[in-house]
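Weekly puzzle thread! Below is a chain. First person to post its structure in token form gets bragging rights.
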Amino acid sequence: MDKKSLVALVKGEDIQEDVTKVFDLMGGVTNMIHKGSTVVLKPNAGHAEPPETSVCTNPEVVRAVIREVKKAEPKRIIVAEAAAIGCDTLECLRVSGIQAVVEEEGVEMIDMKRDKDLVNVAVRDYKSNLDHIMLPRFLMEADHLINLPILKAHASMVFSGALKNIKGVVQDKVHMQMHQQNLTMAMMDVWSVCRADINIMDAYHAASGYSPHMPVPINTQLILGSKDPVAIDRVACEVTGIDTSGVSYFKVAEETGLGNYDMANINVVGNTIKECYKKMWIPYIGDMSTRWPEYDVKCEGACSSCQALLAINMEELKAVDEYEKNKGMTIVIGGKNDIPKDVPDEKIVLHGNCTRKYLKEHPGAYWILGCPPNEPALYLTVQRKETINGMGDQEDEIIRPCMARDEKVWRDYVFNAAEEYYKEHPEDR
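Winning reply:
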């Protein structure tokens, strides 16, 4: 993009005032939303977790945006979401507090998973396995789409913001298809047919730690806004100290023309990045090859998604007391590794689609499909000595029961690790 992108950045203590200021800095809501129009708000409510966890968009941010949009006198305001695979959208909206806000503000709410009136949209020049996408007709016919992500670390993407949140407009069949090949490219394909007009990011209590399922909220007190999803995500990373070289989808998004990544082409208005800076604790960024010396970890050529999943799974093995029991195994992520021929196949775990080629010389190795694979698949494969892919019956019969069983011990482990981190880095608290 040749033109500079504007990103509004506001730090404050009143969510409604801050959201209003963000809209004003972007030109004013009445100049962005047409009178008598249909406006769809897309929050992040992918999992059934309460507001204090920072898993979902803060319901008060949703309320503030609804009230701001009402000033433009639209005909309809619809809050719409399609929760993560296997999750009930209505339950997620209820537990997150968003449903209560919708009812109190007198606007509509739609579960896009349950919507039967779908449009088959062609993806021209598609870059993943998505040549067509089934999307709700009301979404395609809406006059405005406002994207309402929450800023959080993300185990399978390193970072989640505006770009990733639009992934949640598809139903489970397409969602699963996106994860089977290249998730980054699939995200770009969804954006090519369903682009948000406005992005308002909830960074009031950003989710650090092993997010999205086990975040450690931090008191950032920020609201960001932009028409450019790439620029708003880049600024979000800048204010939280995320190394953007580890976020693979930025380059792809810029190359596809979605927005500006280069800070020289981004105009930040409102507060400065320096005024807002608060480093997030993201424990799965950094050197992976020597972090777990009891295992032979090979990660040459691995993308940021698989590196993040490697870290979260190795630490979860420690949390559930399975790490020492299984030491000596070879864990492989990425497609540029050399695996010694004398390593027994039963000691090798191949993580992700790009490691499939190693099955030629190690046909008995555990191979976990996916790009990226299911989030807990690695630690469950190491623990159970059977390949866990999260496909078909494994999702309901193995993965979800195991995650529920291990949730408390994993939560305690993560929060104790966070306390240790902040003792060593008090400036980040």
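Puzzle host: Confirmed. Bonus trivia for everyone else. The two ends are 36 Å apart (CA to CA).
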